[in-house]
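On clarity, I found the account of how folds are encoded harder to follow than it need be. For illustration, here is how one protein appears when written out as sequence plus structure tokens.
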Amino acid sequence: MKLAQVALMLGVTGLAACSPGERDIRLHRLKTNSGQPEEFAILPTKPLQTPPNFAELPAPVPGAANRTDPTPKADAVAALGGNPARLAETGAPAGDGALIGTASRFGRDPQIRTRLAAEDLAYRKRKSLFSYKIVPQDEYYDAYRSQWLDTYAVLDAFRRAGARTPSAPPQGYED
């Protein structure tokens, strides 16, 4: 009986060691393996509308957008009180052309997101080369741990320099 209790305690302790602890791996791994549809990936279509005059309908164009297609950017702008008609083809407001032109005056790489994703994957693979884990964990925390800021040290440095800082919870405080 005593041996069974010790084995049970070791098993519970080992299982507790596998928990992510402070890490919240759900923030980085958004894929689901449940076989269920992802509820945030489904965009509802707009309700059908009867046109005022069927004779004045435009000719159908294969592959072109129609009125019931979801337009999440324009819908978000309208929900926040903006004018979706002011969105340019790039998704930026038409009035931001000068800002976009200035920001891209030295050129811009249209494949920047793809290139950065590939570089990030290579960096994480290089950092996790010798870190084998029994239970899969989010490698972002391990790869970028050396680049983390100590928020309380930075807050203290700003306060010592005389900068007004907002209140922050005390160190070690948890919700």
